[in-house]
């Protein structure tokens, strides 16, 4: 079905775009802390509190007030804004960041894809009921891609993230000359080991139970009456073919047709893509804001079972 994969393609573009943005932020001094100069760079400028000069030049009550205001605006308020980013995102968009922007989530999806092509399942350990039905790829080709990914992606990410604390020019100079300092070595090796462990062994389990940013979005999205979510159209439930395509594409092992909103849903929209592939314009999933994402679980599940399997509704007998 033409256009069925549009949402999937847009999501891949936003993921790659955000990864590129994260990699380039320290390069262009958009955000980084230079541990050598002990200076914070923000949008190309050194972020200074300017308190020392204020204290020395004016010791009056007015001067003290000015210093206090400066401290609030440049020290406290920025941290409040930074710490509120993910709670606010959760309140408004649920776990949208996780599904559409998170670089680590994109890496986990790459690992899932390579596992599917090599093993026929997402997990390294065992098959799961919702594993996608996907044709295995050429083992040599995808095995080579997997090895290259393991050799290139973690160190490259380690270099990029170390650039948030050591000037990127300094890092690349050390790499090209082969004379790495302890700080650069520790940053690159530490990040690489972390990424290898999470991408090979842990993957989306990390998103569910460990990631602080994801947990904040999950909590605030769950309690918010206006957050973005994916709704299943129960009024047209009879159109569902029970193909289970929406369950098989879900990277978080969510069952999208269940009436109760699952806190692990990352709003990736893959279930929408799968349903459009099956039903076209009659797709039963859609993005929506507000409380109508979550409905009465008992009533709707009983209706689903009755329509699909001929079971009696509550209070009825055969």
Brief account:
By secondary structure, the chain is mainly alpha-helical. The protein contains 13 helices and 5 strands.
Structural write-up:
The protein is built from 13 helices and 5 strands. By secondary structure, the protein is mainly α. The relative contact order is 0.12. Strands 1-2-3 form a 3-stranded antiparallel sheet, with no helix packed on it. The protein has a two-stranded antiparallel sheet with strand order 4-5. The protein is flat. It folds into 2 domains: 141 residues, no CATH class; 83 residues.
**Biggest beta sheet attributes:** 3 strands, antiparallel
> In order across it, which strands form the biggest sheet?
1-2-3
Specify Rg, calculated over alpha carbons: 25 Å
Give the number of helices.
13
Succession of helices and strands:
HEEEHHHHHHHHHEHHEH
Give the low-pLDDT segments: 293-301, 313-318
Summing up helix and strand content along with how strands pair, one would put the structural category as mainly alpha
Number of domains: 2
Helical fraction: 55-70%
What integer is the average pLDDT? 86
Apparent shape: flat
Number of strands: 5
Oligomer: single chain
* Strand content range: 5-15%
Q: What is the terminal separation in angstroms? A: 40 Å
